Structure formats: C-alpha cells, structure tokens
Amino acid sequence: MIVLRDLRKSFGPVVAVSGLSLRVEPGEVFGLLGPNGAGKTTTLSMLVGLITPDAGTAEIEGLGSCSRPLVRASLGVAPQALALYDQLSARENLHFFGRLYGLTGTRLRQRVETVLGLVGLSDRGGDRAGTYSGGMKRRLNLAAALVHDPPVLLLDEPTAGVDPQSRASIIDLVRALRAEGRTIIYTTHYMEEAQKVCDRVGIIDRGALLDVGRVDELIARHGGSSVVAVKRGDVEELIETHDPTRTVADVLRASPDVESIRIERPDLETVFLSMTGRRLRD
Amino acid sequence: MNLTQAIGAILSIALKDLRLLVRDKAAAFFTFIFPMLLAVFFGFVFGGGGDGGNLTLGIVDEDRTQGSGQFVQDLEKVAGLGVRRFEAADQAQQAIRRGEVDAAVVLPRGFADSTSSVFSGQGMEIKGYIAPGAGAQAGLLTGKLTELGFRRLMDSFTSPRLLQTQLDRARQQLGQQQDITPQRRGVISSFLDSVQAFSEDMDERDRAEEASTDSGEKATSALGDWTPVRVTLEEVSRQGAGPRSGFEVSFPQGVVWGLMGCTLAFGISLAEERSRGTLLRLTTAPLTRGHILLGKAVGCFVSCTLVQAILIVMALLPPFRVQVTSPVAMVAAVLLCSVGFTGVMMLLAGFAKTETAAQGVGRAVMIVLALVGGGSVPLFILPKIVQTLSGVSPFRWATLLIEGGLWRQFELADMLLPGGIMIGLGVGGFALGAAMFRWQE
Question: Which residues in A lie closer than 8 A to residue B286 (C-beta atoms)?
Fold first, then answer.
C-alpha cells in the first residue's frame, strides 16, 4: 500500500537518505528503526510531502504522492513533538484538527468523542491540553492523528517519554488499530515495543535500509548465537550456541553440580546493535 | 478539497488563532488593553478634551438692539458654550474654516421683535454655520438657541410693559388685516382682551415663578408648532484644522500600538507553530501551504480590525468625545490598515527564522518603527525632517489614515497615497513573507 522507491535526499554535503526502497502492505504494522540521525524523520517527511525528495517517489498505492493534499487526507500523523495547542481543551484541539480534514457537524462531534474514548480522555476532554501530564498529551497527540479516521497512520515515537501505564495503553491502542485493518508505520527507540507491536521491521542507518523482515527472521539473520550462562559456586560460565536446548542438556549431563542455568537468546536489540554498531550517535 | 472546505479550513485556522490570542493573557493585554490605556494616558497628557468637549460659538449681532444684546449675554451664560463675537457673518465663517470656533450664528435685524411676537408673525429664523461632522454639536446648538428663545418669550409674559406692547402690536395688526371675517376678528379681539385682563390680575410672585425653564417647556406644548426661533445650519468646511482635543491625537496612537500587538502576536504565533510542531500537523492535513498562511492572514486581519474598532468606539464615548468627521473615510482607513499590517505580520514571520528571532528582533524592530511612525510623539508636531524619515514606517501611514477619518477630514484623493501604501504592504508583504517563510525547524 505504501511504496517508497529509491528515495534520495541530501542537505548540502550530508546525505540523509540514499536510495531507500520499501513497501508496506495493507493492514500491516511496519516498524522503522534506526539510531538518531539515521534518516527516519527525513523518510517520513518525504512520505507526507513535507520534504521534496531529490530523487525517487513516495506514494500511497492507488492514490499517488502524498505531496497532493487530497492524498494526505487518508494519512493520520502523530509527530514525535507534541503537536497540540496548550491553550485549547482536548475537545477544541480535536475539533480544530477534524475541521481541517473537512469534518463538520454531527460527524465531527461523534469522531471527537470516539477518539477521546479510545485514548481514555473522555472525562478530561474539556480541560486545556496545557494542564495534561506527558502521558495524557501523548495520547491526545495520537487522538489528533485518528480524528478523521484515516486508513494509514504514521506514528513517530508515539510512546516517547511516557509512564508505563500510558505506554501500555498506547500499545494496546495500536494493536486495536491494526485489528481494524489500518496500515501503520511506527518508529521507536524501544526495541521491545517494536517486537511486541510490529509485523515487520526495517532497520535504517546512514540513510540506507539495512534489512527488512519479520522480527524472528531478522534475529535469525543477524542475532548471532544464544548464550547459555551456567553458574557453579561463584563462577558463571557463558557458552555461545546456536542450539541452546541441546547445550543445556549437555551441560546438565556432564556437570551435576550446576547451581543455575540461564539462556540469553538474541532479540531485536541485539540485532539492532549488531547492525548499527555501539558507537554513540548523539 | 473543494472551495467550501478550503474556506472552512481557512476560517477554522483564523478562529483558532483568535481564540489562542484571547486566551494568552499577556498577548491579549498588549493587543487590546494596553493600547486603550495608552490612548487615555496620552490623551490627558496632550490636554485631554481640549475645551472639555464644549461648543465654541461665534456670534454676529446684526440687530444691535437691547433685546439681541440680552440674547447674546444669555448665550454667554450657558454652561458648555464658549461665545466669541464677530462683526460680520463672513468673519464668523472664516473662523469656522480656520477651526477657531465650532459654529456661528447670525442674529438678523428685527431679531428682538420677532422672538417676542407670540401673538403675531412666524418667529425669527436664525442662520447658522457649523463645521462638517459636528452633528451632535448642531443639535446642541439648535436646542440652546430654542431654549433661550422661549426663555425670552416667557420674560415678556412676566413683564407687564412688554406684554402690553405685544398686545398693542397684535391689535394694530388685527386692525390692518383685510381678509378676515368679522366673526373671527371678534373672537381674536375678545381673546386679546382676556389676555390683558388675565395679565392685570396675575399676582407678581406667581408670574415670577412661571418664568422658569420648566414653564418654557410647558409653553412649547401649549403653543403647538410655533417657536420663537427657527435655526437653519449650513456646513462650512474646515481648512487645515488641527486636532480638537488630546484624544484625537492619542487614540490614533493607541491604534498604532494595537496594530503592533496584533502583528507581533500573529507573526510570533507562526514561529511558535513551527517550533512546537503544530505547523507540521497543519502541513500534513489536506491543505495547501497557501491555505495555512491565508488562515493566519484572516486571523490577523480580523484582530487588527477588531482592535481598531474597539479603540475608535471607545474614543467616541464620554469623556473622550472624539468626533469621526468622515465615517466612510474612517471605515476605509481601518480596513486599509488591517490589510497593510497583515502584510507586515507575514513579513515578520518570513524574516524571523526562529521563535526567538520573532520574539526578540521582531519586537524590537516593530517598536522602533512604531515610535518613528507616531506611536509616542504625534507626527504633526515632529520636525519636518523626522516626518520625512518616518515614511519608512508603516505605522506613520496608518496613523495618517486614522487621523484622516478623525480630524484631518480626508477625502478620497487624500487617502490614495497612504491607502495605496497599505495595500502594497499587504499584498507585497504577504507575498514576500510567504516566499521567505521557513516551514520546518
């Protein structure tokens, strides 16, 4: 449904995105992961038409480029920054954003109440956004992306800086939106979160897409060995293995004095670090 | 998005911005309240209401009788009326043109006799002159002259000698009247005899009490449409008249600061939208960038118009009593200023690349332009060289337009230059500012 073809963008001598191609299927939650400065925001900006690519295309299949206002009507964007008016109430914010998409009257009021309910803010809908906690603002930011009921959502770090309760609520909401058949591009720095929510993940660094696939596929390709940690007395032995079950069985058979055994399987974070390195990017 | 939806979105952005402006206490204060305080403060500094809102009246006594002299003296005693005597009508008219007096009246020959001839004749018609746009003053003047006419009439009732003279004159005119039936002649003669008998029987104290203003009003109703004084006023245009009160200077200054408040509030709000991320949400909506900027422009235009309207309506009220000499010019001036300063707002937003720049440099530049443009020292008392230099300030042209609707009495030709500059600033400023505007941080 969302198709990026050989996207390229440079800012002076700095290459932000170099030849990025990607296809996100309808109803899929696609995680776009990468360190700071990898090119995620530039890619999303080109997708929503904020930045014109130097080369390549970004479009919603069947509708065309998102630089066209009509195509943008089918997109819901929750920016990383809390794009809200603090002096307006949650309801006023949502009414305003809804009107920008052509919603009016009863339909607008219904949608506003629906999304307030979805993000758990119905009771506080009349309060000014400036009085909200970080987690409530984050949820309202997501509600503003949903108010016009778009089939495609771009969620840029939707759980950044929120408490565990709000994060759990947002993750549940994203799952519910996927169940409704919406197509979602999701960027995050929380690998565990991506692992829970995303059907497929793309890892991007230095403007290039390094690999794309299901989480288990990426782990299999880039995660490396599992580690079996065996503790005997004060000593802990780490054994790298591709078959941890067999390794554990072998250890137990050979050493009856083992106090504890722990298996550390590679996860998405392992994959991410192995592909993008451990060097600081700030 | 069709045209209706586009207009709806533009108006939504404008409405949202107006709501944000009102809810931002500091911005609302500097946009709406501060200009009012400033206008009032400087108005008093510049001499407040000048003559206290009094009517200055020139008077020409062509009758030169004791009665007309008494009438002039009575006028001089009226509170709120400043009287200045002139020898001839054309001198009085010149004084109006020069702004030395607000109005003038001529007491013609035969004035004293006519105003006291209750039993005969049509009363006296007084020719008057008044400066244009002084409708309220015209009403006041007519009222005062009529009141004095009636007071003089009632004086004749309280004086047996005057009343006897009136009755004798009426009997003489009745005798000379040819086209009247004997029956009617008899009725009138009988009436005059009754009045004389009534006059002779009246107690002197009662008659003194009757000679009050209230009794004058009762007499008005008793006498039907008859009035001893009928006033017709003719407008005399003023030439190069200056402001009539300090408030006519200070309220245009208030408008300057109000326009600055609106321009800054909306210019800064665009920079804020960019830095806080809401601009990104606007640009990802199905709007063109033109729609977004138009929404801002409409909001700025409405707030500029609103702040000017509030100040001007306030100026009309007591105790300021500023006069709008040309309502059409005033409305045009307000709209032109709103157009011009919407362009200035867009220029500010285009030049200021960051919120800090808009808040700091933008505010500083605007304050300097406002000061040069007549925001603190009235333009017309600045030296010629400074007046010339002030041409770079859009506030100067706005001040000129607003003053044009108040005391400069602008006509279409006078408005062409400042109005053209405002339109140019509005259109050019919007286009240049929009071209320079940075959409992302």
Answer: 69-73, 100-102
